[in-house]
Amino acid sequence: LLGGKGANLAEMVNLGIPVPPGFTITTEVCGIYQRTKGLPQEVVEQVKANVRRVEADMGTNFGDVENPLLFSVRSGAAASMPGMMDTVLNLGMNKATAEAWIRRAPHLERFVYDSYRRFITMYADIVMQVGREDFEEAIGHMKEKRGAKFDTDLTAMDLKE
């Protein structure tokens, strides 16, 4: 019971097409969660085992500050619904990981803060159901304060603030 994205990724792997390591949680598990507001311990253990497998494949660890493993969490459905399904990118990113990346690659500071800002916005909106409006308003205020027309006109320090 895979959604379209999960099924297509599995087919790509079967065809030998390079696909980053990951795993799929079936639509059946989603149904269980929606009905019970929880997951069976067996599913929790399978998710943990799959995270450990991806960690081994990538040579990094989920939650490691200095070399974190980040996940993209994509929803899927049996039928295609462009624009209707949510995605959370950079799950595992936090203030400490952002600061560690900047220490290792100072030239990527703006990129790192922008990625962190986007993660916070996606997570708050999709997982916590806090609307994006507050975040967009904050960016709007910063652009106004700096005389910037586009988000890309903001500096790393603007994004950090």
Automatic annotation (TrEMBL):
UniProt keyword annotations, A-Z: Kinase, Pyruvate, Transferase
Family membership: Belongs to the PEP-utilizing enzyme family.
Phylogenetic lineage: Eukaryota, Discoba, Euglenozoa, Kinetoplastea, Metakinetoplastina
Annotated ranges, domain Pyruvate phosphate dikinase AMP/ATP-binding: 1-48
Coiled-coil ranges (or none): none
UniProt GO molecular function: ATP binding; kinase activity; pyruvate, phosphate dikinase activity
Name of the featured protein: Pyruvate phosphate dikinase
Superkingdom classification of source: Eukaryota
